[in-house]
Amino acid sequence: MSAVEHAKKYLFAIVTVYMCYLTHGVQAIIFSQNQVDFYTQWGFTDHALGAAAVSTAIVWTGVGKFISVWAGGELSDRIGRKIPAVLGGVLYIISFIIMLTTTNATVAAVAGFLTGVATSGFWDGSLYPAIAEANPRQSGATTIGIKAVISVAGIIYPIFAALNANHVYDKATETIVTTANTGDWHINIWIAIVLSVIATILAIITPFIYDDKRKQVGEDAEGKAAAKNAAEAEIQAARDAMLQKPSFGVQAVTLLYGFVIMFIMYGAQQYSKQFGQAHLGLDPVAAAGMTSIYTAASLAAVLFWAFMMGKLRWNPTKVILIDSIIAICGLGIVLLALPLGIGAGAVYVGIALLGFGAAGGMLQTGVTQRQLYCPGPRGRNVGMYYTFMGAASVFLPGIVGAMTAATGEANAVWVMMILLLAAAVLSLLMAFYLVGQFKKQFGYSAMAKMQD
Question: What is the pTM of this model?
Fold first, then answer.
């Protein structure tokens, strides 16, 4: 098959992957952006306890990711990309229907757990390799495009959810207030259900190159061996191009990035709205706008870095190093603006910088970086990387939920921002380490144009 024929046939695979992650963009923030309506439906009347219950549901989403992602990549390597993609979509539909109907916080947490399994156990393990396989030469650019579609959902959905809210928390009176909105806030969940149905249908009808290679000789042992041998040949070629094998430190750091990047991104994604309400005195719609600003900046970063990695062939470690510096600057502004009396406007600037530096495809670039330094089966590398990512998605909301119940939401989100800054500094130090190791492994600087 010629390159042009390949591109035409598997372009639809890229479209399908992006549709799935547009849906995931809603799932990732559905609890936090509908916080008060959710905990009111669950029967809570105290804001601190209700907010802690929502954080617990977010924790269980992370638990679902953590316990499933390590196996997701292996599963997709063994049975193909299509089946996990379809199963993930079906599980999303079931989970959102549970969220729509349940009045019990524990049942809602189970739904969150199922979405975590669907995201990491099925979609991440199959769709990340699928999009890289559909456009192998520019896998970094197409993979970072996943973040772009997640960002689109992150810009639009918070405002949509806030406008449809039936209940909000009034910080001045410390009471839960019924809004003037006469519509049903459940439309915010119905949107997620509709997107999930579309994603599932697309996954059913989409051709995936890995699956097609398995079928070329047939679904017998010989056909599976042919696909496996082709993948192993690609991996071996990457290893042969190295001057030395990746050290233990490289192995550890490229995986730890999954935790560190997710820790920073998840904190800002889930709690920037609460930070705006607690420390800037913003109403729910304006506070949701902070999440949208954060996400809009991340979308701008995705487009920028996709160009830099795709057209100018920038090394992913170079991108992560620069992103870490930007994230540190953004968090520094967020934390110092109010104490120094600079003003709330500076916080918006800091949030935008944080979105550009911490959420502009950093996670996806980290996956590309892992495969570059430590070539191996794509599904396995994604699974290992996202296991560390899943740990962060459990650890962070767990800490925030516990602090919220103990000391209140305002203090919890402030301490969280300090922790995010510490993580950004660690990310920068790790990037400097990998820059040094890249020269040893490949013989040229990580700051130079990629050679392939």
Answer: 0.75
What pLDDT score was predicted for residue 35? 93
Residue 443 phi, psi dihedral angles, 5° rounding:
85, 5
Residue 228 domain-assigned (yes or no): yes
Mean model confidence pLDDT for the chain: 87
Q: What pLDDT score was predicted for residue 252?
A: 96
279 phi, psi to nearest 5 deg:
-115, -15
Q: The CATH number of the domain where 381 resides is what?
A: 1.20.1250.20
203 Cβ contact list (under 8 Å, min separation 6): 16, 20, 82, 85, 86, 88, 89
Q: Can you give the C-alpha Rg of the chain in angstroms?
A: 22
Instruction: Answer whether 267's CB lies under 8 Å from 28's CB.
Output: no
Q: Is residue 449 part of a domain?
A: no
Query: Strand, helix or coil at 93?
Result: helix
Residue bearing tokens 């570059």: 372
* SS3 state at 169: strand
Give dist(CA 186, CA 161) in Å, integer.
9
Can you give the residue range of the structural domain that contains 29?
Answer: 3-442
